[in-house]
Write a structure and sequence with these properties.
68% helix; 4 strands
Length: 332
């Protein structure tokens, strides 16, 4: 656009002049999309109350020496104020330096627990998805049956497994005893507690992985398999060069979700063992709960510090994982 002035002409471009600041752009966005802001506001308020405030409170407590003896409370008409003090990063140093002799053993077991469970989820889910993707009689019935463990509430599933794995009178031990085989203490000895926790979590998590991968398999064009078969590709080659690349986006998402969910899988271990869970069988999230609510005095500061560390580790993992996937996609 050209603007004439005395003594000549000056060329100007559209958009010349001061750009609106962030507050001005926010006001313009609100004026144009006020209805969207109104729809989002309740959700933001709920997230703020249920997520943001507890997160800020947890970070604050992790920098103090708060416990059940010095946190403010109300007893009858008497109100006792907070008496805990600021300690900075002492809680984090005590945890990460191994001074409490708990973090690194729990961290190691949490990593093993996460890797084994996610590998079983993905491997078994992939096998079942491949089977259910074939044209077999009763395929719909099999799909419904295999989805049931996912449809049933987790606490119901865990309580059912407690009856199966009970040390005395459990269904599994009764069957092993009838077959004259050893009867492990599934719910009391640390090694068997870990084994039973992996078994139950695998049972709970496989259906989601199976359904997700089955949806991904059905989105792969059948023509690719037909072309590979015409070229003489073996079943393994078709799986490696057609199925796995076709499932790359689905697999990356479900593995990321599986790692996050399994790393924070509180329900299975807590409900399966209750107060009988030994120290060795605790993952980081259940140990953080025990510090904050399962002992006397309750160590609110230590529990909050564990929570912040867990959140930080998951954020770092998710960031590196997404970058690794992006590099692989560019290389492909």
């Amino acid at each position: 656009m050209t603007v004439a002035v005395e003594g000549g002409s000056r060329k100007t471009q559209r958009g010349d002049g001061p750009r609106p600041g962030p507050i001005s752009r926010l006001r313009q966005s609100y004026n144009r999309n006020w209805y969207a802001w109104a729809m989002v506001a309740p959700v933001v308020a709920v997230i703020g109350v249920l997520v943001i405030y507890p997160l800020i409170r947890g970070v604050y407590l992790s920098l103090t020496d708060a416990d059940s003896n010095n946190v403010g409370r109300t007893i009858g008409v008497n109100e006792i104020p907070d008496s805990f003090s600021w300690v900075g990063f002492d809680n984090y140093w005590e945890i990460l330096s191994g001074a409490d002799n708990q973090f690194w053993p729990h961290f190691t077991w949490t990593i093993v627990w996460t890797v084994v469970c996610v590998a079983l989820h993905y491997g078994i889910g992939m096998g079942l998805a491949l089977l259910l993707n074939r044209k077999i009689r009763g395929r719909t019935f099999y799909r419904m049956v295999l989805i049931l463990p996912w449809a049933v509430p987790t606490f119901v599933t865990v309580f059912a497994w407690r009856l199966i794995l009970a040390d005395d009178g459990g269904v599994l031990n009764m069957a092993l005893e009838w077959a004259h085989l050893p009867t492990p203490a599934w719910l009391s000895e640390p090694f068997w507690q870990k084994t039973s926790a992996i078994m139950v979590n695998t049972w709970v998590g496989v259906p989601f992985m199976m359904v997700s991968l089955l949806g991904g398999l059905q989105s792969i064009p059948q023509e690719l398999y037909e072309a590979a078969e015409v070229d003489g590709a073996s079943p393994w080659q078709r799986f490696r060069h057609v199925t796995l690349p076709g499932l790359r986006s689905v697999s990356s998402t479900v593995v990321l979700l599986g790692v996050i969910w399994t790393f924070n899988q509180f329900v299975v271990i807590f409900l399966l063992f209750g107060n009988n869970a030994g120290t060795e069988a605790q993952i980081l999230v259940t140990w953080a709960y025990r510090l904050g609510f399962g002992q006397d005095p309750r160590d609110y500061a230590g529990s909050a510090a564990y929570g912040v560390i867990i959140l930080s580790m998951l954020i770092v993992f998710a960031s590196f994982y997404r970058r690794w996937l992006a590099r692989n996609e560019k290389a492909a």
